[in-house]
Amino acid sequence: MTAIPGDGPSPGTIRERDPRPVLLAAPMSPAQWVAVAVTLLISATDGYDILAASFAAPSFAVQWRLTHGALGVILAVNLIGLGFGALFVSPLADRAGRRATILGCLLVVSVSMLLSAVSTTPVLLGLTRLTAGVGIGGMVGATLALATECANLRNRPLTAAVISVGLPLGGLFGAASAALLLRDHSWRSIFVSGGVITLAITALSAFLLPESVDYLIGRSDGRSLLTLNRVLRRFGQPELTVLPFPGSGPAGPAVAVRTTVFGRELRATTLAMIVLNFTQMMPIFFFVSWLPQIVADLSFSPATAAGVSLFQNAFGIVGALLVGWLARRWPIVPLAVATMIGTSLSILLFSFLPHDLALLKAGAGLEGFMALGCSAGIYGAMAQAFPAASRSTGTGFAYAFGRFGSIVAAVLPGVLFTRGWSLSQVAGLMIGVSVVGAATFLIWNAAIGLPARAAPQPPQT
Q1: Residue 1: inside a domain, yes or no?
Q2: Contact 130, 111 (CB under 8 A)
Q3: Of 2, 190, 193, 273, which residue has the fewest beta carbons closer than 10 angstroms?
Q4: What is the CATH number for 174?
Q5: What is the separation of C-alpha 261 from the centre of its chain, rounded to a whole number of angstroms?
Q6: Does residue 14 sit within a domain?
């Protein structure tokens, strides 16, 4: 094995040293924390984009005289795009790289948000929401993979929780900005704000976001070695003369998905994560998507409805971070299951609250605390369940089916409300679905469980 010509060792270079065990064991460098912070901002575009239509919905529903059923379709097309993006775009991150996939998807989301602002019909708005969803879904697996791969072993559960905070953080900003914008501007201003902010995050990511060390080590070429050494310098590690484990990483597009996430070793894990995401995202996104409209239907203004969502997302951030912090010491599975139960009970409680604004805010905050804590637990489990070579693909597939569950949660309640179902009846249906997911998760954990969190070992020479 020889070094790549023109990329000779610098002082302090260790030949054929695998830097991953050192990065996993050592305290995180400032550059690693910056990378995690940037991925948090990226994931916040998910929260803003999903909820942008929800905040704007009471206004454009009146403008275009939409029924609850038609409104549910517009809310769902974005989730359809999220699912397809996670299924067909997210796997590119295991082949073309985490960073390139994220930057491309951010650009798609930015343009789509701006086009949503100038849509003149429900059909055009639906099309732009669809393309925005494809971009968001395409980068979610790569974002989770890159963030956890930039963290050391101790902070990986916390990092996964931080990424899950992107949803309430984006929603929190979206709710606050919507409440202000809707006082003096039309619903279109919500999408203009989102598009401009996402463009700014795209530019910031191009400068500050590194490529994953795990991904680069799996690529056996000189260009990857040059990029890897740049990342190692930023992380305060010595450079390499050659790539460790040459040829052991992703083999490229020729490797079919069925040989990785649906192969013998990962099939049960992939299916369990799919069921978990589908069943838990249904109640979570039912509440997220329909909360502004539910509050507006109680004779509150659209701005007031957005303010209730503000409480949901603010307390959601606290819940997600608390679960991530606890997961540094306690197993993630019982934490996730506890918050699943809490989410179901809080949705049921909200459905019986009197029409008092203070109580509605408190109920929304409790649901957000539990629901985003649940999301943090699911993100943490997925980050540990899949190996690096298929992490973006596996999490992307699970996320895609979670979004398909979100589609059902956006459309089905509209149909049921139109047919006369009460909020408590719809909440009961969502709770039943959640119980199925929690049971599946526990069975999988008893039979297979998460792999031991051990650092990879270099080959013996």
Answers
A1: no
A2: no
A3: 2
A4: 1.20.1250.20
A5: 19
A6: no
